[in-house]
Structure formats: C-alpha cells, structure tokens
Amino acid sequence: MEEERDNKKDRSNFTCLVAFGRLRPHIVPQNSGEIKVKPTEFITRFAVNGKFVYVDQRATAILGYLPQELLGTSCYEYFHQDDHSNLTDKHKAVLQSKEKIFTDLYKFRAKDGSFVTLKSQWFSFTNPWTKELEYIVSVNTLVL
Q1: Number of folded domains in the chain?
Q2: Neighbour-count burial for 60-76, b at 16+ CB within 10 Å, e otherwise
Q3: What sequence ranges are listed for the domain PAS (predicted)?
Q4: How far apart are CA 53 and CA 66, in angstroms?
C-alpha cells in the first residue's frame, strides 16, 4: 500500500463533489419544528372562451379554491379589473400563436377575497387529428 501511495504522489489526485439544489422561496415553518414547503406553481387549462377545464390541485395551497370550485367558471372572474385589458390581449395572442405567451405580473383573486400576484406562460394545444385548438395551458407562478 505504501509503495502504491509513493507512486501516486507524483500524480495529482483530486476528488470533487458537485451538487445541485433548488431554492424554495415559500417555506412555512410549523409549530412542531417541521418545515413545510408551499407550492409556488400550478397548472390550469381553460377553453378557448376562458372557462377553466382543468385545475391542478396545487392551486388550492396558493389560491384557496378547490379545483372543482374553479371548473366551468371564467378566468376573467378572478383577474383584477386593472389587468383585464392586458390579459385579454395575451389571450388573443395565444389563440393566434403556436409559441408560448408570457404574461406580465397580474393579480388573481383568492378565495378569501385578497389578491395574489401571478405570472403565467400560456400556450395553446391543438388536437393533432382534428387540427382544432382544444384548450389553452397556463403554467402559473406565484410571485412573492
């Protein structure tokens, strides 16, 4: 073993560990000392007319609504009045584009009546068989 070490002294032998971590901006400490991480992103789908057809369960922790409470309602019912014009423009743009459309920051009414700030990526899904636009996917991120 010592002979082998002596032979290796001439050669540089470095060991390196590379690790990646993901920052979680919305951490909620619990009384028990446990730390729970609240989701900061959720996915929704809405029809061409803006009515919700799918709501990710992670939306409940952010907005307070159960998914079934939003289904069938228009997304415009929850947008702050000041954001309607801009979001209408984005809605029109996503209907005419095959690219992702990025919204500006906007306010979305939570179940308790307060507003949370979101930013979203919208893209349309076209049925490959019928070539008809079926729905719009929205990846929503909570902005703290």
Answers
A1: 1
A2: bbbbebebeebeeeebb
A3: 49-98
A4: 13
Q: Which residue has the higher pLDDT, 2 or 87?
A: 87
Nearest 5°: CA angle at 47, between 123 and 126? 50
Q: How confident is the model at residue 139 (pLDDT cuts 50, 70, 90)?
A: very high
Q: Check: CB of residue 110 under 8 Å from CB of residue 64.
A: yes
User: What length does the chain have?
Assistant: 144
CATH number for the domain that contains residue 68:
3.30.450.20
- What's the mean pLDDT when you consider all of the chain? 86
Structural domain boundaries enclosing 68: 2-142
Global pTM? Answer: 0.72
